[in-house]
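Researcher: Structure for this, please.
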Amino acid sequence: MHNNFVNKTLKATILNIIVAFFITGILIWAIFLFAGEQIEEGISLISKVSIDITNKEPAKKADLVEEEKRISNYPEYGTQYATIQIPKIDLDLPVYYGDTLDVIKGARVGHAGGSYFPGEGGSIIYMGHNSKKVFRRFSELQIGNEITIKTSYGEYKYKIFDMQIVKEDEPDKLPIQKEKEILMIYTCYPFVYVGYTTQRYVVYAELVD
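Model: Predicted structure, token format:
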């Protein structure tokens, strides 16, 4: 009699645990179904995306290229000045001047302070989160794919010539130079990882038009 009671109690407890796990699983699935993108964006803001490419302050950018200045008005830090389009992955996003987490929140692409602007003939560095709305589909890119940057002062086309996985503390992988106009775009890697990661995926493209 005692054994039967123990067995029934044990079975009831196990059944309750299974039901609880099942209900919890359904609740988690429902939350991510209806608010998955908002949760992902919130978590991505915690991740450190930027690479320390230079010690120069963004506000002094105009002074750095005064001799070879080619655009009449530089954008204010934190404002949109262009759009980036990558047909291969159906990407069309706004580009903001700045590389802080606040600047690149949501579906935005940031422009690293200290790097050149499209049309100036030097290194251009863009970055963004690896979320679905931004650069998660970078794994589909191939050498030869085109990237178009549309600014308020002109349109520039680039062609991808290299892609690399680098560490967050390898600024030499994003060199600032003025001999050739190279667009470098990077995001956190692995692409499907949400949260802090020490790796970055860099796409390199050269100006063709």
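Researcher: Any notable elements?
Model: The chain has two domains: 1-44, 49-207. The chain is about 20% helix and 30% strand.
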